[in-house]
Design brief:
Aldehyde Oxidoreductase, domain 4, alpha+beta, homodimer, 5-stranded mixed sheet
Chain lengths: 764, 764
């Protein structure tokens, strides 16, 4: 009875599975309150313009309109990401800086009236010259998006370790390449939505689709000029985020401002069209990278120059830029590295974090260039990776400390997959169909320390019939963390997953938490849950020890039974013990609390930083096989294998779902997805024209995890899914390279690009 | 800076004052959910009948009707009060036992359709002989309301201390009297209302107007046959309870059952008419009491025989009966006491707890009889009370242990009031207007232990800007406890009341609590809040000690500042300290938890019990002056003085509100309020005809509290308001006795009764 887990590592259905599959789960847009008004946001039609005057009189007179607010109704607060001064008002002040910038918001009795009112707001603009290309933006004579930023440089990172110039001189092989990545979108299914209700006691209740509700909690207080204890943020279900719902937006602020003005609850739900043209994107980048190797394939030096198109506001871009640069040091040994990054303001939609956060862009360049080098040097892409792979207990030159690490094993497993696939490959077929196999590798953070507050908290209440309620400050934006955290609580307390109820964030009561980013929830909040569960367990063990006449240290909890170690017959049921603990003598409600943050992490200086930002790192190898149709130029991913070190998985089924999501997402990023703009205007603001992959674009995904156990992770777990997002794109690009001999350095790789490249190649 | 409280003992407005006064506060009937259905309950038209058949086909076919449920749709669970087997199904099984008994419930798209559907339900009844008089009910040949209870006795209490028969023989004066009290009602303004929503994950969320939500939590699980962790009880504001909302009712159960059946949220709001004829009442009683005294006024013995009309079901009647009997021992020294009580089933609406819970009935008899004895013996009513008054550190023969006690002082103060009033009295006036002054005294419990679980819990979260969230499992049904508890938290943490936000019960997360009864919340939950606040304070003191370079024990918290004892200048602001504690180093969310229950209390055997049920007792003296118009028979209360020992008040203003409520309530109970029934049918189910007092019936109330400090109570507090409800009625009856020389032994005292008695008297 004492061996093996009851909940951990099992293929258990998600706790929110049924409720989401049946449509019962309530998202922000599903919420409704008596007397509720509907809001809409007026957006800038110009990429860059001065606001001369806003006349909302006609709009206010429209029957059914209850209020109109503009930047003039605010206290002028400007949001800004980490380590940055604020530059982004929630409703425009003086200037608009991109097409879609929020200018005014209307509350009316229904959405149609609010829409109609938008058209009646008369805004007098003075158009300004716009800059939409990041390279042009850096010219001395370019128009300035923000007056405080010369050459439109919103952030600059300059990392340098070892002696790069000297190292290059010693290399046997050096190459330089130019890479470009497009504007891509998070692609969450649930659009931004917010419901705000200001009661007459002066308290604001807010429901919104937020990955990090405590960011909204703080910024709402600052933007409204009220104290935090007057704000209650309640978290409904979240329909995907991927980094695009970390920040507070105009939709959130406007709902609160309009509710304060009208004294009624106000709900604003933006359209997917608005999401696609007026909200966040992944940073488009232009990467020049130079790599030097010894002839045996040892990587000696990397020198990179990165321009990241930040769009109109800083957002969290300082961190994005730092990650782009610093992750050139992972997952391969790299003694000498230099990376200069420039995040540039343009008059386009702002860039922010997105699954992988900055790392996918630079690793796409590095991994593809590595295959090009291997190809020219006559080395096997797997062998060159194996040779340079970081292992346990190594420290990168920028200070990342590797602890548990199954990277080498993942490459070895990847080699086996490739051998097997090459054997499998159909001998005959359409001569226009070229097959190729490519590889990409990654190392990724597991709950990085990015600012002051990194600690997670958990509160557990054990009900008198043995049921367990669990609260944390973390959110499940779809990644399955509510399930993983519930499994951890269940295992520690010796109950079953179905005994645990996860309660979503309510800032009045749940512990403060930074939120969902950087693959932190299972690892950091999971540990807080473990500590909280142990706290309750210890309280119960004291009572059990009395009842069972044993030492508290000898009490075991498993599968709803509590017994003396070594004597499973000397036990009682968990519900019975809870009842005794709650009702006998000085019995009391069983409440456990736990806090946890990794020790010794550094808040890294993002401009020049060196230091360990993550308590552990995940690793993995991604293998993809493609078919390229040389007649149509179309590339199709046939199969994938993901071989990753996520520590010990908490829930294999949920973990696989995360990996499959990254796999299919990566297909889109490599082959189809791209926001196309003309003079700052988004030309394809719909999923159909943006070309998100659908189920028909999916392929078979084999998943293998190397068996590591992380000493710090809860039950040995690290992260899964986000890290491997990094290596999917280069693995597909490298597979196309393998298929047709052309290394593409710009994504997405469209059929036209393939046909053009084939023509160029055959023309040579 | 170190002396005096910032929050405690101040006249602070209630935390829910504005929101309630403006109508913003949401009560259960105000809640609404998308897709919500409306429910109605079909009630028995017979006082006693067998259900032969229920045909709901026509009702179900009515357009807009979504479901009909009856007892056959239940698992047959029967609710019952403390120490009792269940006897009360939430929807009738086999029999109906009073006019108003719930028989079926309907859910429809609106209330009108649900009402219409009720009329289409065809119930075939077989009428049974009914018994509506409790004395007749005890006859051997009376029809049985419940087959398990011979002579319809639902509960019997037989208390005996000392040697009563011997004591009577030694008395100089003995008298026997017969008293009767009427059916009166709690008179809360908000009717019973419930909203239940069953989600597809199998979890029930429930919002209802419940004083003790955890009673509903447990009974809901039992009645539906599901585990507790599948039930979430959320507490909206409560519009008064007074004991009438402690239990779970048909309205609560039916909303849940209909929601399960329809898959939609279902709300049921009953009418005030239904509240008055189909829900709970205070036990009507018939009390024969014999008291013996020495000629100096020393009370030697009491022998009482009490018949309490329990109505159709047991409810919490066993406890009511025990309290009626045992409180003959308080507030006067009584060496010999016997009380035999019978709680009798009749085919009328069930009786339960109501403000004072059982004590007002027997104390009415005892206090009025004491004045009659004093009158005949030529003793002053105040002197006889002073002579027999219990004091600190005495123990009553039934085991009540008195600790802090300002009873004697309250009588002395009462004497002063009477002297002053007699001087004030206008010399001339209408000869038909007779003035009189009467007194009544009381002792009352402060959080009695009535069953296993008596512990309260509190959780405090300190926000990063110094705001404080407080959660307990207790409810504020109007008594102001949310304010008192917030004041306690604020004072311990050294912040201000407006910094504290009180979060109402949510069974998923708040600590389990017995609820609001027996004047327990300020005393018991208040102590839990104190402990929780001290827990957070200690965490903060550790951080402050480091910051201020001092010993944690020397850190003081006051008025939003934290400083070193003796050196107020060595300090920082509370918000600053919280920020340091949360963000620096291993900083974490500040969560405090506290549990508290009085030590050494006994769960008393309600049939024969002896033992201390309350950690302390409140005391007081009530003086009332009346004018009786001998021409119209109408009595009017002119002024009142309440002199009470509530320990140290937490909030004088809130305390006075509680006392004024008891004062005006007592006027109604004495002079006007009465449910009039004919053959079991309520003839006056409206507040107008039931004659609740209005503002025009109110009088001036002087309030004086004796300065005791209870060592166990939070900041020295005990209870206020409920205890003095006990003495208001006899003080008015005694004042009428003083005015016209007639001691009335039946309440309410109607003008007709007065005229009849005056005629009888003058006829003698």
């Amino acid at each position: 009875m004492e061996d093996g887990y009851v909940n951990i590592g099992k293929r258990l259905p998600r706790v929110d599975g049924i409720i989401k599959a049946t449509g019962e789960a309530k998202y922000a847009a599903d919420l409704s309150m008596p007397g509720m008004l509907h809001g809409k946001i007026l957006r800038s039609p110009y990429p860059h313009a001065r606001i001369i005057n806003i006349d909302a009189d006609k709009a206010k007179r429209l029957p059914g309109v209850r209020a109109v607010v503009t930047g003039n109704d605010t206290i002028g607060f400007k949001a800004g990401g980490i380590s940055a001064r604020g530059d982004e008002p929630y409703l425009a002040l003086e200037k608009v800086r991109f097409i879609g910038d929020g200018v005014a918001a209307v509350a009316a009795i229904d959405e149609e009236t609010a829409e109609e009112a938008l058209e009646l707001i008369e805004v007098e603009y003075q158009e300004l010259p716009a800059v939409v290309d990041p390279v042009a933006a850096m010219n001395e004579d370019s128009p300035l998006v923000h007056e405080h930023a010369p050459r439109n440089i919103s952030y600059k990172t300059d990392l340098s370790y070892g002696d790069v110039d000297k190292a290059f001189k010693k290399c046997d092989y050096v190459r330089e390449d130019h890479f470009e990545t497009a504007s891509i979108r998070h692609g969450f299914i649930e659009p931004h939505a917010a419901l705000a209700s200001w009661d007459l006691s002066g308290k604001l209740s807010f429901w919104g689709s937020k990955q990090s509700p405590y960011f909204t909690y703080r910024n709402m207080a600052k933007a409204l000029g009220i104290t935090l204890s007057r704000i209650r943020i309640v978290q409904p279900f979240i329909g995907g985020g991927f980094g695009g719902k970390n920040e507070m937006f105009d939709v959130d602020f406007s709902s609160a401002l309009l509710s304060r003005k009208t004294g009624k609850p106000v709900r604003i739900v933006v359209s997917q069209e608005e999401v696609l043209f007026a909200y966040r994107q992944r940073h488009p980048t232009i990467i020049d990278i130079k790599t030097g190797l010894k002839k045996d394939g040892t990587i000696m030096a990397v020198d990179a120059h990165i321009i990241a198109d930040g769009g109109a506001y800083l957002s969290i871009g300082a961190m994005s830029l730092y990650l782009m640069c610093s992750f050139l040091c992972l997952p391969y040994r790299l003694p000498n590295m230099r990376a200069r990054g420039y995040r540039v303001y343009t008059n386009t939609q702002p860039s922010c974090a997105m699954r992988g956060h900055g790392v996918p862009q630079s690793r796409f360049a590095a991994e593809v260039q590595l295959d090009m080098a291997a190809g020219e040097m006559g080395l096997d892409p797997m062998e060159i990776r194996l040779k340079n792979a970081l292992g346990p207990h190594e420290t990168t030159p920028n200070g990342f400390v590797i602890t548990s690490c199954g990277f080498e094993e993942s490459i070895i497993e990847g080699k086996k997959v490739i051998e097997k696939w090459r054997k499998d490959r159909p001998k005959d077929g359409d001569p226009n169909i070229k097959r190729g196999i490519g590889v990409g590798c990654y190392g990724f953070v597991v709950g990085p320390r990015v600012a002051g507050h990194n600690t997670a908290g958990a509160v557990i209440k054990v009900h008198e019939d043995g049921g367990v309620s669990l609260m944390t400050g973390s959110t499940d934006s779809g990644q399955g963390s509510d399930t993983a955290l519930s499994q951890i609580a269940a295992e520690v307390l010796g109950v079953r997953l179905e005994d645990v109820r996860y309660g979503m964030v309510d800032s009045d009561i749940t512990p403060v938490d930074p939120g969902t980013y950087g693959s932190r929830v299972t690892f950091i909040t999971g540990n807080a849950v473990r500590v909280a569960a142990e706290d309750v367990k210890n309280q119960l063990a004291e009572v059990a020890a009395k009842t069972l006449e044993a030492n508290p240290r000898d009490i075991r909890f498993k599968d709803r039974r509590v017994y003396v170690a070594g004597s499973p017959e000397r036990g009682i049921s968990f519900p019975r013990l809870v009842k005794i603990a709650q009702y006998s003598g000085a019995g009391k409600t069983l409440l456990g609390r736990g806090y946890w943050a990794p020790e010794g992490l550094k808040v890294v200086n993002l401009e020049t930083g060196r230091g360990n930002m993550s308590a552990t790192y995940s690793f993995g190898t991604q293998v993809s096989e493609v078919e390229v149709n040389t007649e149509t130029g179309r590339s199709k991913v046939i199969r994938m294998a993901m071989l990753h070190d996520c520590g010990t998985p908490i829930n294999e089924m949920a973990m696989e779902g995360q990996l499959e999501g990254s796999a299919i997402g990566g297909i889109g990023h490599t082959l189809t997805e791209e926001i196309i703009r003309k003079d700052g205007r988004t030309m394809n603001p719909s999923f159909l024209e943006y070309r998100m992959p659908t189920a028909l674009d999916a392929c078979n995904v084999e998943i293998l995890h190397t068996d590591t156990y992380d000493d710090v992770g809860p039950f040995g777990a690290k992260e899964s899914g986000e890290g491997i997002q990094v290596s999917v794109v280069p693995s597909i690009v490298n597979a196309i390279y393998d298929a047709v001999g052309i290394p593409f350095k710009k994504i997405p790789i469209t059929p036209l690009m393939v046909l053009d490249a084939l023509k160029d190649k055959s023309g040579k």
